UniProtKB/TrEMBL annotation:
Pfam families: DUF4845
Record-given protein name: DUF4845 domain-containing protein
Domain of life from the UniProt record: Bacteria
Listed InterPro entries: DUF4845 (IPR032314)
Ranges annotated as spanning the membrane: 12-33
C-alpha cells in the first residue's frame, strides 16, 4: 500500500496569479519612480535657493528667477516657476509647491501622484 504525501507549493494557476500581481505592482513602481525622483530634484533645488545667503536680499521676482535658472539646469519640466507660490512676509520667505503627475498604467487606468509641500526660511530683516 502506497501512501501519498501531500504536495507542497503552488500550482500552475497559483504561479500565474502571483506573476500577474507582481507584474501589475512592478509596472506601477516603474511608472512612479521617475515622478518621485523629479519631486526630489524640485525639493532639493528649492532648498538650495533658500539656503543661499543672497536670498535674504532678493525680491520675490529674483527668487523666481533664481529658481527658474536652477530648474533649467536640473531639467525640471513637470512644473514651472510660475506654478510656485512664493511669498515674502516680514522675515519669512515661503515657497509652496502643489502639483500632480498622471502616468498611464494600462488601458484606461492611470496612476495619480499628488505632491504638495511648503518650504520656508526665516530670512530676518
Amino acid at each position: 500500500m502506497i501512501t501519498r504525501t501531500r504536495q507542497r507549493g503552488l500550482s500552475l494557476l497559483g504561479w500565474v496569479v502571483v506573476l500577474i500581481v507582481l507584474a501589475v505592482f512592478g509596472t506601477a513602481a516603474f511608472r512612479m519612480v521617475p515622478a518621485y525622483m523629479e519631486y526630489n530634484t524640485i525639493r532639493s533645488t528649492i532648498n538650495s535657493v533658500l539656503e543661499d545667503s543672497k536670498t535674504a536680499r532678493m525680491s520675490e521676482h529674483e527668487v523666481r528667477s533664481a529658481l527658474s535658472k536652477r530648474f533649467t539646469i536640473n531639467q525640471v519640466d513637470v512644473i514651472g516657476v510660475n506654478d510656485l507660490a512664493i511669498s515674502k512676509n516680514g522675515g519669512d520667505l515661503a515657497v509652496g509647491v502643489d502639483y500632480e503627475v498622471r502616468r498611464p498604467l494600462f488601458y484606461n487606468v492611470s496612476l495619480v501622484m499628488h505632491f504638495e509641500d511648503t518650504f520656508s526660511k526665516n530670512i530676518g530683516r
